[in-house]
Design a protein that fits this description.
The structure is a single chain. The strands form two sheets. A three-stranded mixed sheet has the order 1-3-2. Strands 4-5 form a two-stranded antiparallel ribbon. The chain is built from seven helices and five strands; from the N terminus they run H-H-E-E-E-H-E-E-H-H-H-H. The model has no long low-confidence stretch (mean pLDDT 89). Helix 4 packs parallel to helix 6 (154-173). With 208 residues, the protein is mainly alpha-helical.
Length: 208
């Protein structure tokens, strides 16, 4: 229902192209587990944990955007070099420019959806925290690519510009999210990038 209301095009694509596979996760007392994955070679298959409706919506759109974008990338490149030269705030280690652009595009779609949803249903503190972390991830990802701009293809430029546009829109619409959580978000991401650049195999705890 949420998809039909706030992203009808995405719902139509999911209904016509995706089979969902719920997965069971174990967590320690007092902790929540969120996990999802998809495989570009297994188009149409998405595995995700089932939690509250907004968490499911986030994970579902995240994975389906991976699959949709993967199809686009087979037709048009987002970068001109595949060497691992960039850090990304969502995965440890150096990554190709195309990988970071792909992640930026995924977070852009999620942020666009939730901005529309929260425009009608005001976000909770947790919703504001997620808006801040998603937006900051987009901006940091774009910053990391900035040092490798020569490798960005025209499609990549379009995707990066779309990301920065929705990030600025989010900042204008939800100043409370950034007043309350921006310092925290930047601190957590900077710490992750520091550990990642040092070779630590870490996962971005702030995206769980």
């Amino acid at each position: 229902q949420l998809l039909a209301r706030f992203s009808p095009a995405m719902k139509r694509w999911i209904v016509g192209n995706v089979v969902l596979y719920p997965i069971g996760l174990r967590s320690s007392p007092g902790e929540s587990s969120r996990e999802s994955f998809s495989i570009l070679e297994a188009q149409g298959c998405v595995w995700l944990s089932i939690g509250d409706p907004l968490s499911v919506l986030d994970l579902l759109v995240h994975e389906c955007t991976h699959l949709r974008l993967g199809r686009v990338e087979r037709l048009a490149a987002t970068a001109t070099d595949d060497r691992p030269v960039c850090l990304a705030p969502w995965h440890a280690g150096l990554r190709p420019v195309s990988y970071v652009i792909h992640g930026i595009a995924v977070f852009t779609v999620i942020l666009e959806l939730f901005v529309e949803l929260f425009d009608e249903f005001p976000p909770s503190d947790e919703g504001l925290r997620r808006l801040a972390i998603w937006t900051t991830c987009l901006e940091v990802g774009a910053r990391e690519i900035g040092g490798q701009a020569a490798y960005v293809a025209p499609l990549g430029t379009v995707l990066i510009n779309a990301a920065l546009d929705i990030a600025q829109r989010c900042r204008r619409m939800y100043p409370t999210a950034f007043r309350n959580y921006e310092v925290w978000a930047k601190k957590e991401i900077d710490e992750f990038l520091r550990m990642s650049s040092a070779g630590d195999d870490v996962t971005p705890w702030y995206l769980r």
